[in-house]
Predict the structure.
Amino acid sequence: MFAKSWQLVGHVSQLEKTGQFFTAEVAGEPILVTRANDGVIRAFYNVCPHRATKLEKKEAGQKKILQCSYHGWTFHLDGKLNKAPNFTDEDSACVSNCALRPVRMEILESLIFVNLDDHAKPLSETYGDFFERLERFPFMGELKRVNQKTRVIKANWKAFIDNYLECDHCHVAHPGFVATLDMKNYQIVTCDNYSVQGSVVKPDKTMGTTDLNEAEMQGGEFYWLWPNLMVTIYPGPGNMATIQMIPIDHETTLGVYTYYFRDENLTQEEKDLVAFAEQVRQEDVELVELEQIGFRSRAFTRGVYSKSEKAIVQFHEMVLEALGR
Ligand code: FES
Ligand SMILES: [Fe+2]
C-alpha cells in the first residue's frame, strides 16, 4: 500500500533557497529531496550508486555539494555525479552513468509527494477534486511548514484512520470539539480515493478566541487521503495540519503531525488552535490504544458499522482491494 501510493514527504517552504534539501523515508526507502542551482525541486533515492551507502544523513540542510561518507563520491544537487575519487579518466565509462536514481515526485498546493510506483496514476488524477478544494482556501499559497511533532502510538495504523473517519465518537470523547462545531450540520462525504468531513462553526464560538476575522470564517474541514494521510483545516487564522500514520509494526505506529501557518512565530490565536488540536489528538490516541488491547482479545472477531461510518467502509474496502481480497 505504501510503496504504491502517493506519500507526502514535505512542503516547498522547506526548500526556499537553492542548495536546500531534506530527507524522508517512504515504505522503508530512503528519499532525498533537493532544490538544485537551476531552482528545480527533485526527488531521489538517498542511496549512493557506488556501494549503496545512505548518502545524506541529515534531516535537512543547505549544501553546495553532497558527499557520500564512505568513499567520498560527490554529487550535485541535481543528482549528477561530481567526482568519484579513486576512479581515473580511464574508468570514466564505468562511473559516467552513476547519478542518483530519481523517484517520481509531484507538487500540488506546495505539498511534495513521491510515489515509488512507476505505474501509479499521476497525483493530480488520484484524489478527485481534493486539490481544487484546497486551492479554494485563500491562505493556502502563503502557508509555511512551521513545525512537526511525532509520537509513537501503541496501535495499528488503521485503527487511527478508522478513528479519524467517523465522528460518532465525538460527543463522548471530544467535548471541546463538539462545543465548537455545529454538530447538527456535521457531514461526511466519500470521494475518489479520499473523504472529507466537517461542519460550520457555531456563530458564537471560535477556536480559543472571540475575535475572528469574518473573511477567514470557515468550517473545520477534515480530509483523509488513501492510505495514511490526513489533512485538517481548522476554523480561525489561515492554517493547515497534516497527520501521517506510519506503521512501525502491526501494533505500533509512528504518528507524524505537521503544522502549517503563515509565519513561524505563532500568534496567540494560532497557539490556542494548536493546543486545541493536540487536545483532540490526545483523546483519540488514548482511544485507539484501548482499542488495540481489544483487537488482541479472543473476545473480538469483527465489528459493525453505523450509517454515519461510510468513510470507514470506503477505507476498509480499499484496504481489502489493495491486499487482493
Ligand atoms: S558507497 Fe558512496 S562513495 Fe562508496
Ligand atoms: Fe476523534
The first strand starts at residue 7 and ends at 11. The mean pLDDT is 92.
